[in-house]
């Protein structure tokens, strides 16, 4: 499995666990607390997730958020 895909799967699993009560987590928290600490690797993984419509980055003022597709959270709520 290509490294970006493996990173995307690990990130998605972490995001789904982390976003049980909401649809977003800050990019800073994802990089600091999540499975991928390297900025470039995190960007690649987010690109894979965005292409698959699983998660996307968004701005909330100056904060960068990672928003999970709400359809993925249906079973977690």
- Beta content comes to 15-25%
Count the DSSP helices: 3
Low-confidence stretches: none
Class, according to the CATH hierarchy?
Mainly Alpha
Secondary structure class reads alpha+beta
Give me the Rg, rounded.
Answer: 11 Å
The description of the largest β-sheet is:
3 strands, antiparallel
Oligomer: single chain
Number of strands: 3
Domain tally: 1
Structure description:
This protein is of the alpha+beta class and 77 residues long. The chain has one domain (3-70): Arc Repressor Mutant, subunit A. The protein is built from 3 helices and 3 strands, in the order αβααββ. It has a 3-stranded antiparallel beta sheet with strand order 1-3-2. A hairpin with a 2-residue loop joins β2 (55-60) and β3. α1 crosses α3 (39-51). The termini are far apart. The mean pLDDT is 92.
List the helices and strands and how they pair.
Layout: H1 3-18, E1 24-26, H2 27-33, H3 39-51, E2 55-60, E3 63-68
Antiparallel strand pairs: 1-3, 2-3
Question: Which labels suit this protein?
Answer:
77 residues; alpha+beta; Arc Repressor Mutant, subunit A; 3 helices
Could you give a quick summary of the protein structure above?
The chain has 77 residues and is of the alpha+beta class. It has helices at 3-18, 27-33, 39-51, and strands at 24-26, 55-60, 63-68. Helix 1 crosses helix 3 (39-51).
């Amino acid at each position: 499995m290509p490294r970006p895909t493996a990173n995307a799967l690990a990130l998605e699993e972490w995001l789904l666990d982390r976003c049980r009560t909401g649809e977003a987590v800050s990019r800073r928290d994802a990089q600091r607390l999540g499975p991928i600490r390297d900025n470039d690797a995190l960007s690649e993984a987010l690109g894979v997730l965005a292409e698959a419509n699983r998660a996307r980055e968004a701005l909330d003022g100056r904060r960068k958020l990672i928003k999970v597709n709400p359809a993925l959270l249906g079973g977690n709520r």
